Amino acid sequence: MADDKDTSRPAPVEVRIDKRQVRVLAHPLRMRLVGALRVKGPATATTLAEMLGTNTGATSYHLRQLAEVGLVVEDPDRGSGRQRWWQAAHDVTNWEATDFDDDPDARAAIEWIQGDQVRLLAETADRWFATQHEWSPAWRDGFGMSDIFMTIPPARLEELKAEVWQVLERYHRAAEPDASADSDARPVQVFLAAYPLREEYQ
Question: How many angstroms separate the CA atoms of 188 and 144, rounded?
């Protein structure tokens, strides 16, 4: 188990997204661009276009839109001449659902982003179901989903989410940056979600 004091990786840089940022981020390609930069690290528009199956012009345009609101920044140590390297400005973007109650456009944007997260979860699960037979028994046992039913007030649910997030951050910081140090290491994506219980079960 990872030690609480293990700091082999720095703590993630988090930002509380604002109304302007959420309106810019609510776009399929922009969401993928930010995700790719967070996972893969700094890259050029050309590299990102190849990675995401789009064209460099569109990638460059959307990177500039993201840069205008501070969600991506240029990497000054890598750029040379006309070649611009981009990096994610933050490791984690967070918000509260009520942050945008007074702005219908921002509220619609955050609802689209939340829906996109659910679509990503479903797509990720479908890919796993289609290929799980190709993985070792250890990984087949490690991957997957679980759930639990509980009755809890909203303040306690916030505490629960915060505590679980602290565990995820601890393991993230303790992860070996060089995956070659462990031949069994693979990139994984962990989702955290809490939703109301379906009415028929209440």
Answer: 11
Question: What global pTM score does this model have?
Answer: 0.81
Domains delineated in the chain: 14-201 (1.10.10.10)
CB environment 109-135: b (16+ within 10 A), e (fewer):
bbebbeebeeeeeeeeeeeeeeeeeee
CA distance 196 to 117: 17
**Distance from CA of residue 156 to its chain's centroid?**
24
For 120-152, what is each residue's pLDDT tens digit?
A: 999 999 999 999 999 999 999 999 999 999 999
Helices (H) and strands (E) in the chain, counts: 7, 5
